[in-house]
Write a structure and sequence with these properties.
The chain contains four helices and seven strands. The chain is α+β, with helices and mostly antiparallel strands and about 150 residues long. It has two domains: about 1-55, Beta Barrel (OB fold (Dihydrolipoamide Acetyltransferase, E2P)), CATH 2.40.50; about 60-145, no CATH class.
Length: about 150
């Protein structure tokens, strides 16, 4: 699997598995927002190169970031199971996920005591909707969270 080694203006250097380094124009990349460390597939078409980002099956990416499909995150993680803290667990925020689970559980048991958990769940869902279908991630299929579970955009 090839990896982007450096990006200098209009040129991209890509390291291949066999140790070769390929220099190609940034226009040959078939994806937006290339970053150093991105895993890519390099195809040769004569003297030209076509470079596509490798689709990973796991949700973890380089530098401790997490990438999750935005539709699954918003509709399953926050809407359906947000009261159980699933959205926070998906973001890697285990402590907040447990706290949210406890607050919402108290809410189901005592009705009055859990308004904080219910409001938190509603706010997380609305925030996810705005991020997913608003401006920040409007043209992308995945959310990206940093190592602390915060949205990267």
């Amino acid at each position: 699997m090839a990896e982007i080694l450096s990006i200098n203006g209009a040129e991209v250097k890509i390291g291949e598995d066999d140790g070769k380094v390929v220099t190609t124009p940034i226009a040959s990349l078939q994806f937006s927002n290339p970053k150093v460390g991105d895993k890519v597939d390099v195809y040769r078409d004569g003297k030209n190169f076509i470079v596509k980002r490798t689709e990973s099956s796991s949700c973890a990416t380089v530098d401790g970031e997490r990438s999750i499909n935005k539709h699954i995150f918003v509709w399953i993680g926050t809407f359906m199971f947000g009261g159980f803290g699933v959205d926070r667990f998906m973001r890697g925020q285990v402590g907040l996920g447990v706290l949210k689970l406890l607050l919402c559980t108290i809410g189901w048991i005592t009705i009055v005591g859990g308004f904080a958990g219910w409001i938190w769940t509603l706010v997380d869902w609305i925030n996810g909707l705005i991020k997913a279908y608003g401006g920040a991630y409007g043209n992308e299929e995945n959310f990206t969270f940093d190592e602390n579970g915060n949205y990267t955009k």
